[in-house]
Amino acid sequence: MAKDLTRLLRPRSIAVIGGGAWCRQVILQAQKMGFDGAMHLVHPRGIDIEGLRAVADISDLEQVPDAVFIGVNRQATVEAVTALSAMGAGGAVCFASGFSEAAAEDGNATTLQRQLVDAAGDMPILGPNCYGFINALDGALLWPDQHGCDPVPRGVAILTQSSNIAINLTMQRRALPIACMVTCGNMAQTRQAEIAMALLDDPRITAIGLHIEGFGDTGQWHDLAVKAQEKSVPLIALKVGASDQARNATISHTASLAGSDAGAQALLDRLGIARLHDLPSFLETLKLLHCNGPLTSNALSCISCSGGEASLAADTAAHSALTFPALTNDQESALADALGPMVALSNPLDYHTYVWGDAEKMTAAWLPMAARHIGLTLIVIDYPHTDASDWQSATQAAIAVRKRSGQPVAVVATLPELMPREVARDLMAAGVTPLCGLREAMNAAEAAAQMRAPHRMPPLVPGHDRTVAPLSDADAKELLRGFGADTPRAVAVHGAGDVAVASDLAAPLVLKGQGIAHKSEAGAVMLNLTHDALAVTAQRMKAQSFLIEEMVQGGVAELLIGVTRDAAHGFVLTLGAGGVMTELWQDTTSLLLPVTEDDVTAALTRLKTYPLLTGFRGRPGADLTAITRAVMALQSFVIAHADRIGEAEINPLICTADRAVVADALITMTPDTNAQGEPDGAD
Fold first, then answer.
1. Residue 235 included in any domain
2. Under 8 Å between Cβ of 468 and 674
3. 21, 136: one domain
4. Does the residue 163 lie in any domain?
5. What is the pLDDT of residue 472?
6. Taking the CA of residue 606 as centre, how many other CA atoms within 13 Å lie in the half-sphere pointing to its CB?
7. Same structural domain for residues 435 and 523?
8. Which of 304, 475, 499, 655 has the least CB density, counted as fewest CB within 10 Å?
9. Residues 545 and 585 reside in one and the same domain
10. Please, are residues 486 and 508 in contact by the beta-carbon 8 Å criterion?
């Protein structure tokens, strides 16, 4: 059952336990924010802080508090949580460190964390090792430091796993209205997704930004994404913590391509949560979403009075999913009327300075760019910090374009410092988004245009990691064949002298040494053999056993299809260019299982090698239905053996005009013993 965080995050009474400098700041910051509820202080010496007289013990409090800041050592924190839970407090912020985040250095840390969670029971706690929260909507906070938040009637919420990042974000001077700032600490009990779920119930929250170090329960994140979609509150993420897993992989190509960051991206894609990679873009995206919500299109218009700025805007968006569509006939006609024959008309538009300083003429010149098929109109205006009086007309024109067009409009300063706070506030009050920095503006527009509904199915959750071992290529293919995969006709032999049993196979043939990873690099695979050449080739190949197959002919392309078990995110499906060039091309896309056939079709279109599959320069195309069938067969196998699979890879999948054939397969899984106690699939 979901925790009720209402009393904790929107308290009418707060208490502070402790008397150090951090506790003093909590009281001081609550007073500065204008908190009008009851405040209490607990300290054994009955001290006075900022006019607040302490009681000696939690049991001496005259009322049960809604929210409590616990600013004492870790052992005393557990004792305080025990007392607060027993009396029915609404929740607590646990400031102390030395719990699970210190487990590597302190053997007692994990035990203390377990004791803390047990002590809390049903009472929600934030942290430990956590600064707390600021609720700028209701003037309520438990925050042990200075901050930059001002009271706001509505705005965005930001949740971070870093208290220091949270402080810095509150100090932003970009006119972003921060309604709530919540730090999550090490999340002993209450997870980040749970906190965000609670914030979605407040209609004053316009968007939620999540600084994420790790996800935890992916089912909770799926529930969050679904609820956010229902509430029409967009979510964005700044996900950090890319893993070394890719560099450490030694067996499969897939594992080296689908490290945990690929899993994280696949999870965010599945949840429909846009990902940003730096703090400035994170803030500007929240601002754009606060003003407009998600954009309906990735098509942009850009307006500036400089050809240099127009070119810079186009170049900045060049490697993104954004587009600058050519002007329509109606746009060209209206622009020609407003700007005359001296201005070359294009998108991005350099309107020169013929109309500069006249708000009405500027409005007439800019308005055609904010057409209905445009997702966002960017008006580039850099305000000088010397004398900006002549720039007031530009502000008025931008506001007028927004009002008359009814379309999303943003004023963009190419440098963040060239957007004055007072101008930004005036623009926002009129529904125009003030964006600080051209690169940040493009990142924000791209994120806001790519948002979509979460996948209807939650990710497949892997069980506990187990010891796994690789199957032979022959055994792996036999398993996949049972789930509908297309494999070559083949025979397995134990020695070079047995190759004559392959006489029923049609040449040309393929000879593979078994029990060898990366066969091509090891010289353990030979192609295009006749029956007469088999015995000689097998004698030369250093292998104990062999697989002889009919060679797949008429290949259009080779693909990799692989699934890795990612304990943090689920089962990661990787699709990409296959064969011996897999690592060189690095042409892959990742999804989380389970997937639908439509998911697979869409993923294939994202590959750079996709034109080969559809027929490139008159060459025949591949059978896309057969490719999808191969992916679904691999998925069915993984789902059926989800508690045993380490990874499963088909590389290459040879794609022809009418087949998609598993040419090589690698599966690692926990052996499953049969009634005789022998591992299934053993040679």
1. no
2. no
3. yes
4. yes
5. 87
6. 15
7. no
8. 475
9. no
10. no
DSSP-derived letter for residue 185 is T
Run of H or E residues at 443? helix 438-449
| 244 band by pLDDT with thresholds 50, 70 and 90 | low
**How does the average pLDDT of the chain come out, rounded?**
91
User: Tens of pLDDT along 450-508?
Assistant: 999 999 999 998 877 788 999 988 999 999 999 999 999 999 988 888 888 889 999 99
Mark whether 419 and 434 lie in a shared domain: yes
* Tokens 């009990």, residue located: 189
The CA–CA distances, whole Å, from 349 to 311, 386, 404, 494 equal 9, 27, 20, 71
3-state secondary structure string across 95-142: CCCCCHHHCCCCCCHHHHHHHHHHHHCCCCEECCCCCCEEECCCCEEE
Cα separation, 219 vs 654, in Å, equals 35
Q: Which residues contact 427 (CB under 8 A, 6 or more apart)?
A: 175, 395, 398, 399, 411, 433, 434
**CA angle centred on 448, ends 443 and 452, rounded to 5°:** 130
Residue 149 lies in a domain: yes
Q: How far apart are CA 609 and CA 604, in angstroms?
A: 9
Instruction: Based on the fold, state whether residues 195 and 53 are members of the same structural domain.
Output: yes
Where residue 506 sits, what CATH number does that domain have? 3.30.1490.20
CA atoms within 13 A on the CB side of 62: 8
The set of residues, in sequence order, having a beta carbon less than 8 Å from that of 528 and lying 6+ positions away, is 508, 509, 510, 551
Cα separation, 276 vs 440, whole angstroms: 10
Q: How many domains does one find in the chain?
A: 4
Domain that holds residue 383: 295-449
Cα distances from 427 to residues 174, 360, 397, 400, 411, in angstroms, run 12, 17, 11, 11, 8
Q: What is the CATH number of the domain that holds 177?
A: 3.40.50.720
